[in-house]
Design goal:
Shape: globular
Helix content: 25-40%
Radius of gyration: 21 Å
Strand content: 15-25%
Strand order of the largest sheet: 1-15-2-3-4-5-6
């Protein structure tokens, strides 16, 4: 892992993350103009960072947050579409891979169903290699239709990578799912606002450590008239230590070269902190000492996960028994979100 230079090598993937200033847009024409601004930034960054193989822009960087529902539906994108073609031209020109946000992507039943919150991983030929739809929209505020799975794709120089989005990253399950599918770099694009800065910086580092993986976070900055975004885009090593981190500045950039051979060697040779291996080889030392083989226990010991898979509705009722039974709460009512009072009207 290298930080502080502008190069990369055959073994390392040069990764850049951007504190993109949250735009406030209203029309398709404004969205496309912003796409061209992102494309120009990508090409310019490659001039300054010749080792850059991959550039990552935050959630909402393409569309901004459409607080007006009509505007949200009218500006929803298709993949491929006009937006992705602008990005594809820039990736081909700069010979760089990119991660771009589409908030939103049209649902298959558009406009009868809400759009998805989508990220795409695009290669240096302008081809979409991964399209990920946010599994955990930030309810109750976000109205996106939820996605249903994670993906792992080969990125630049063969590094295996997964995309996740913002609130997804508050759930350890999604990081583990990506890592257990073989992801070496988990990319978290977010449009995260105050007051949750400390928690989100901490979460990215903790999940890199817990999953023996690189993490790249690209976050929005600035004020869009509603929320203030804290930036702190960062690149984190698989040991949980930060390689480079932006502050709160608009259009701040951080860059690092992350090694394929280092992470693969660590995952192969690591002993006491090899969390991925140890999770399915539980207590192997004690099992060896007990004459019960040398591989430990593979079975899942966590009742919650077994129950969730076998009986999702029953699991929901179990969780509601110690949380709440309505999606909204009386103490902080939000228009259109049922709470205990409105549910009994």
């Amino acid at each position: 892992m290298h930080h502080g230079d502008i190069s990369s090598s055959n073994d390392t993937v040069g990764v850049a993350v951007v504190n993109y200033k949250m735009p406030r847009l209203h029309t398709k024409a404004e969205v496309l103009a912003n796409c061209r601004k992102i494309a120009d930034m990508l090409v310019g960054m490659k001039s300054g960072l010749p080792g850059m193989d991959l550039v990552i822009f935050p959630e909402y960087s393409t569309h901004g947050i459409m607080y007006d529902s009509k505007e949200m539906y009218e500006t929803a994108s298709s993949v491929p579409g006009e937006e992705t073609e602008i990005f594809a031209e820039a990736c081909r020109k700069a010979k760089v891979w990119g991660v771009f946000s589409l908030t939103g992507e049209r649902h298959e039943e558009h406009p009868n169903k809400a759009p998805y919150n989508t990220l795409i991983l695009m290669n240096d030929k302008g081809e979409v290699v991964q399209k990920y739809r946010k599994i955990m929209p930030w309810v109750p505020i976000e109205g996106w239709y939820p996605g249903n799975c994670t993906y792992v794709s080969e990125g630049p120089k063969g590094m295996k990578m997964s995309l996740i989005i913002c609130d997804d990253g508050n759930y350890p399950e999604i990081w583990r799912d990506c890592a257990m599918k073989g992801a070496e770099l988990i990319i978290r694009c977010q449009g995260y606002m105050y007051p949750a800065k400390d928690q989100q910086v901490l979460m990215a580092k903790a999940m890199a450590w817990a999953n023996n993986c690189y993490v790249a976070v690209a976050n929005a900055s600035g004020f869009d008239g509603v929320y203030s975004y804290f930036g702190h885009s960062a690149i984190i090593g698989f040991d949980g230590r930060t390689l480079g981190e932006c502050g709160e500045e608009d259009y701040g950039i951080q860059y690092a070269a992350i090694s394929k051979s280092l992470i693969r060697d660590a995952r192969r040779t690591g002993q006491s902190e090899n969390h991925l291996f140890k999770l399915v080889h539980r207590g192997y030392t004690g099992m060896i000492n007990s004459g019960e083989g040398d591989r430990g226990v593979a079975a899942c010991p966590y009742d919650f996960y077994s129950k969730w898979i076998a009986d999702p509705e029953g699991t929901r009722e179990m969780v509601e028994s110690f949380t709440r039974t309505t999606v909204g709460v009386e103490e902080c009512p939000i228009d259109g979100i049922p709470n205990k009072t409105t549910a009994h009207r």
